[in-house]
Amino acid sequence: MLQLDDVTVRFGATTAVDDVSLSLPEGHVLAVLGPSGCGKSTLLRAVAGLERLDAGAVRWDGRDLRGVPTHERGFALMFQDGQLFAHASVADNIGYALRLRRVGAAERRRRVDELLELVGLPGYGARRPATLSGGEQQRVALARSLAADPGLLLLDEPLSALDRSLRERLAGDLREILVTTGTTAVLVTHDHDEAFTIADRMAVMLASRVVQEGTTAEVWRAPATREVAEFIGFETFLTGAAAGTVAGPDQQVDAAAPPGPPQQTAASARTDGRVLALRRAALRVDPSGRLEGVVRRAVAVSDAVHLTVDVDGVGEVAALGDDPGVHLEGRRVRLALEARGTAYLPG
Ligand code: ADP
Fold first, then answer.
1. How far is CA 300 from CA 166, 191, 259, in A?
2. Contacts of 240 (CB under 8 A, 6+ apart)
3. How far apart are CA 137 and CA 282, in angstroms?
4. For a Cys staple, 328 with which of 73, 145, 277, 298, CB 3.0–4.6 Å?
């Protein structure tokens, strides 16, 4: 189990990591999610032993790792660019750690083949890294990281150099591989979808501090602050009567509300001074929807249309249309609310 107690790392006058405490039980995958410059790579490097702590401690199975050099921590690191050895074959790249450990050639071959299978590249052993696509190179880098059977795998934006569709597919594969192998891992990313796909726990980091930590589902359903909500993809924030109008008189939004006293049913009273946060997908064009408004803006994306709708009695909200072929700007539409894309934030 990994434990960080009040970890602080400074570079001169800059505090890159400020008093961060986290724990990660064995077999779990933690995503440290935050914008560029928030300190997440520094935090990962501190765990790896590549940055000196100015305060606090990193512990592994209860043991303080202060003074333990990187190569003796039993952790593996994987970066955005897999940093493969260009002149070695794929098999030699993957088998590198095993050779260092003096594992015999036959056993090494067996293990390399097993890892190639695991990452979906059976038969690629003799290839050179330069003959592989970016996605294939990252799969090899992952196999190489896993070869040493690390106690902890540290992943620094492992997919961000890849194009979007590949990133999505590889994120799913990575999740499956980590679960299959029972690997304990910390993933650093700025991409909330990636964090959600790959990890089961999430620590949101903003301006050097961890501002929320929990299971991915908990953070998704109940962001602690508006800043966290914005960072994980909530776009519309409503209060007072507008929130009441969108929430509606029935109980449909309550699934997303934090536990508390039973909800009142009068629409205007239901939001209780809290902020109703909505993802774009929470409001969809639907002829039988309860809300109505005028489309101010429509932008087609690959498989949907992003709308800005001026809803009667509410104001502008982000919503989702599904037919890029229909010209919606200026038209009146009805919107239905989907509770899964909603959350209440403290007012
Ligand atoms: P992230 O990974 O979230 O993009 P980093 O951990 O790389 O953020 O950086 C956090 C802050 O620390 C930034 O302000 C960055 O400029 C600073 N920083 C990171 N590494 C160094 C370094 N080696 N020397 C000086 N400042 C650094």
1. 21, 21, 37
2. 268, 271
3. 37
4. 298
For 192-206, the pLDDT digits (tens) are 999 999 999 999 999
* Burial of 40: CB neighbours in 10 Å, binned 0-12, 13-18, 19+: buried
Per-domain boundaries in the chain:
2-230, 234-345
> What are the angstrom distances between the C-alpha of 282 and each of 195, 275, 318, 319?
20, 15, 9, 7
Check pocket membership of 38 for ligand 1, CB cut-off 6 A.
yes
What is the CATH code for 2-230? 3.40.50.300
Q: What is the pLDDT of residues 303-337, one digit of tens each?
A: 889 999 999 999 999 999 987 777 889 999 999 99
Q: Measured between alpha carbons, how far is 336 from 163 in angstroms, rounded to an integer?
A: 33
Instruction: Determine the atom of ligand 1 nearest the C-alpha atom of 35.
Output: 3
Q: Which atom of ligand 1 is nearest to the CA of 12?
A: 25
The verdict on the CB of residue 305 being under 6 Å from ligand 1 is no
Q: What are the tokens at 150? A: 């690390």
Is 208 near ligand 1, meaning CB less than 6 Å away?
no
